[in-house]
Design a protein that fits this description.
Blueprint lengths: L1 E3 L29 H7 L9 E3 L5 H4 L9 E5 H7 L4 H6 L11 E4 L3 E2 L6 E5 L8 E7 L3 E5 L7 H6 L9 H18 L2 E3 L4 H4 L11
Length: 210
Amino acid sequence: MLLWDTGLPDTLAALPDGFAPLDGNIRFRVRKTLAAELAAVGVRPSDVTFLALSHMDFDHSGNANMFAGSTLLIQEAEHRAAFSDSALATQWGQYYAKLRSSKTVMLNGSHDVFGDSSVVIIAAPGHTPGHQVLLVRLPKTGPVVLSGDLWHFAKNRRLRRMPESNFDREMTFRSMDMVEALLTRTGATLWIQHDSDQYRTLPHAPASVR
């Protein structure tokens, strides 16, 4: 079993007003914890064989410490930044600190998780040094690509925009082009993880996509 991203920290569920980092420009709230969502589908943290994070920002790694017993699949560049004195580690390191001692597979590009092309991690750096996306081939739905933060909204994709805080602008553009080519080649649907309009059209746990 692979878990992709761990969302905002479950601890935010105890804060009625949520959490407003980054000078208060964005406020994050958690209505349902990841632990509860997993329990609803009969999954315990110890059931998760592999953990893969699109990148180490806290809204994607907020519950990563819960899965320190899983095997971490991470781009080498992301691991190096995450466990250094970089701004990434300084800001968000508390949320994934326990992964330092996890069994880890260092990646430098694509990785076929189960060896049958059903789940493939693909390096797409730029937002962070070792940002990655996930290609999942589903038997009924067909291929789907989970975007991480390569794009935050459909409009960003259309206009080729990115946050000013991205690690490397040109690297991001190259990753965008690579994923666009992947979508064309595979016929995959892109799920933009932060796009609220698309989110409302998708099944939510405990429902599933097959």
